[in-house]
């Protein structure tokens, strides 16, 4: 789950040269990468914090990019179970969906991947109930493969989730797919799985994403497009206006 508002931007600008590169698969995070859900998630953790008797601002300092079950273990282990997590996360799109918006370009890039039968997946720290809720509410293309919080023993920044996605897509461990992430935990996870990482600076500053290891950082998904594909499901993408330090 994600719940922070680290949006500071420092020296640098989005003026990098175009990058054209082929990848065997595209692997997307969900919250903050495809859906701007920060306001909804903040309201969610305020509700949970009140229930737990914990200051929600304390929870929000470390919850971004992590699984709720891992966050709950720190404050109330009795609620760190999938029945509870699925119930409360599944309610987020219903209760707070009006506070969420699509990341600009999200619908277009996913539709482009679907149109060419590309190999792609969503790999998220959210539960299946949360992901499916957002896909329905936001009317986003649904991939054949979803890797969700329940599928792994260790959440991001551990690389288990992206390694599992590659395995289920039939890719070798060493094959460098393209991971698209908005959080530092997600960037670290993607790099640990031997993938290239495209950071989206919707939540963290571009410098924070680059320091975590992102290969490129863009403002939002309008700065990446599918320009080619082949019969294996591989795609060629063009990255425009990536962040460059001053």
Helix and strand topology:
Elements (H helix, E strand, L loop, with lengths): L12 E2 L4 E5 L2 E3 L6 E2 L1 H15 L3 H5 L7 H8 L6 H9 L1 H5 L4 E2 L3 H10 L4 E4 L4 H11 L6 E3 L12 H9 L9 E4 L2 H9 L3 E5 L5 H7 L3 E3 L5 E6 L5 E5 L3 E2 L2
Parallel strand pairs: 3-6, 3-8, 6-7, 8-9, 9-10
Antiparallel strand pairs: 1-13, 2-12, 4-5, 11-12
Describe the 3D structure.
By secondary structure, this protein is of the alpha/beta class. Helices cover 36% and strands 19% of the residues. The strands form four sheets. It has a six-stranded parallel beta sheet, with helices on one face. Strand 6 (120-123), helix 7 and strand 7 (145-147) form a beta-alpha-beta unit. Helix 4 (82-90) packs parallel to helix 7 and helix 9 runs parallel beside helix 10. Residues 1-9 have low confidence and may be disordered.
Tell me the number of strands. 13
Average pLDDT for all residues: 93
Sheet with most strands: strand arrangement = 7-6-3-8-9-10
The span between the termini is 33 Å
How many whole angstroms does the radius of gyration measure? 17 Å
* SSE order, one letter for each helix or strand: EEEEHHHHHEHEHEHEHEHEEEE
- Indicate the low-confidence ranges by residue numbers: 1-9
What coarse outline follows from CA principal-axis ratios?
Answer: globular
> Helix fraction?
25-40%
Work out the strand percent: 15-25%
């Amino acid at each position: 789950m994600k719940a922070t508002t680290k949006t500071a931007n420092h020296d640098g600008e989005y003026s990098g040269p175009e990058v054209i590169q082929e990848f065997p698969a595209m692997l997307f995070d969900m919250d903050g990468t495809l859906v701007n859900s920060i306001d909804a998630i903040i309201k969610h953790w305020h509700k949970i914090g009140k229930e737990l008797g914990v200051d929600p601002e304390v929870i929000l300092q470390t919850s971004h990019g992590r699984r709720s079950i891992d966050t709950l273990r720190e404050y109330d282990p009795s609620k760190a179970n999938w029945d509870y997590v699925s119930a409360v996360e599944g309610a987020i799109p219903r209760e707070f969906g009006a506070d969420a918006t699509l990341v600009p370009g999200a619908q277009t890039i996913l539709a482009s991947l679907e149109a060419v039968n590309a190999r792609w997946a969503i790999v998220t720290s959210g539960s299946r109930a949360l992901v499916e809720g957002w896909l329905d509410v936001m009317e986003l293309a649904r991939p054949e493969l979803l890797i969700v919080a329940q599928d792994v023993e260790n959440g991001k920044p551990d690389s288990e989730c992206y390694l599992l996605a590659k395995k289920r897509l039939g890719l070798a461990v060493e094959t460098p797919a393209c991971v698209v992430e908005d959080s530092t935990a997600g960037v670290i996870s993607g790099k640990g799985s031997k993938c290239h990482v495209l950071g989206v600076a919707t939540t963290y500053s571009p410098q924070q994403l680059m320091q975590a290891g992102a290969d490129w950082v863009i403002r939002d998904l309008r700065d990446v497009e599918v320009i080619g594909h082949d019969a294996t499901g591989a795609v060629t993408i063009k990255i425009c206006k990536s962040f460059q330090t001053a």
